[in-house]
């Protein structure tokens, strides 16, 4: 790897699903690296052993794969590198850049109370910075603290936030190793980023204060500090912190709701980043255009309506075979997707391929599409919604019985041939086309709206259409006999 190779990393904690903010951070890292011929690495920050789970790790890897983001090299697991983290602390102790602190919890509590009472942000008073180790109390295992500078300032030139400065007098000597020898998050992140050759740290601005402490560790070790870019968090439409009602869900939830990966990528890239007035980006266009200074400093606002609109656009761009492939991938993750999965024979696939071009025009999600296509795979007698029931009066059902007889000999069974037969039937019966087509639609689809009724006839095929018409006409007979 050459010195000027860009290396980014995505470093989630496996304590839950891959949430929408994490997915955007991963995307920004991926785009920045890919645009510059660099590498994006993946590190699982699993040092919190109580909260880290294999299920969460699997959900993160699965979420990244679904959204279409790959990474370079093997996944790094932070916990497995604990020995390396301790080794680095030993070098700091040897150089005088760190020291052993034997303060008890009671002493630390007293220091914090005193500091807060005096309005100071530096909570630890440095009591063990320069004390002789011979003064150490017997039997007490120390923590190891960074010997941070007491005066001057710590600054970073952030690619999004600009120059950010902290006064060193306000920063504590942070703990590097706990008394049980386990490394802290602050230390582990610096050591891992250095060892992995990370050149650019792109992450949420909730980590901005961490950057000051991490830079001090880099400086103490004499290591090159990476370029930082702290991106604003995502807020709800009302400007408040994201909650589940706003869309603070895992990407697996968006998959289950029927969003396409390409639409999610496009939506996420526009959350806080802009490129002129362009709203729709292919992945290639994103890679070509993406840069850090174009990220705004204000929190982005999540907008479900905009996501749905964008998803509808991507659905309309796909042809029927591609849409059916996406639906098949969705079914294991979709509530009640098992019904269609069970019925998906080659014959039903052929019917769906005929129906999807007409259905996709109004669909906002793949779940919408599956629901709108329900008439294709519904069991007889099909369920009717309220509007369809209202259309199917006794008179209308009687008309359908006669229509079934008129349609039976139609050959070939195409949209054109069935349209000619329906129009001819309406004329012979002295009815307007709508008076035949509306109950026909209700009987065939169970709804008052659908794709073009003659497309529906062609999609369902002769046997299914005549069967559904007979079902409804039979109900008219039962009603009149009653």
Describe the structure.
- Residues 476-482 have low confidence and may be disordered.
- The protein folds into four domains: 7-74 and 234-301, HUPs (Rossmann fold, 3-Layer(aba) Sandwich), CATH 3.40.50; 80-231, Rossmann fold, CATH 3.40.50; 318-377; 386-481, Arc Repressor Mutant, subunit A.
- A three-stranded parallel sheet has the order 1-2-3.
- By secondary structure, the chain is mostly helical.
- 49% of the residues lie in helices and 10% in strands.
- The protein has helices at 20-35, 54-67, 82-95, 105-117, 185-195, 208-221, 251-256, 261-269, 283-289, 304-317, 320-330, 337-343, 346-359, 366-372, 374-377, 386-391, 394-407, 415-429, 433-445, 453-460, 462-481; strands at 7-10, 39-44, 76-77, 98-101, 143-146, 153-158, 162-167, 175-177, 200-204, 227-231, 234-235, 300-301.
- Helix 11 (320-330) crosses helix 13 and helix 17 (394-407) runs antiparallel to helix 21 (462-481).
- The termini are far apart.
Note the main attributes of this structure.
elongated; 4 domains; disordered C terminus; mainly alpha; Rossmann fold; 3-stranded antiparallel beta sheet; 49% helix; 3-stranded parallel beta sheet; 482 residues
**Broad shape:** elongated
What is the count of structural domains? 4
What's the average pLDDT?
92
Oligomer: single chain
CATH architecture annotation name of the largest domain: 3-Layer(aba) Sandwich
Biggest beta sheet summary = 3 strands, parallel
Q: What's the tally of helices? A: 21
Percentage of residues in helical conformation: 40-55%
Strand content: 5-15%
Strand order of the largest sheet: 1-2-3
CATH class wording of the largest domain = Alpha Beta
CATH homologous superfamily of the largest domain - what is it? HUPs
Structural class: mainly alpha
The end-to-end distance, rounded to whole angstroms, is 85 Å
Number of strands: 12
| Uncertain parts | 476-482
Give me the CATH fold name of the largest domain.
Rossmann fold
From the alpha-carbon coordinates, what is the Rg to the nearest angstrom?
Answer: 32 Å
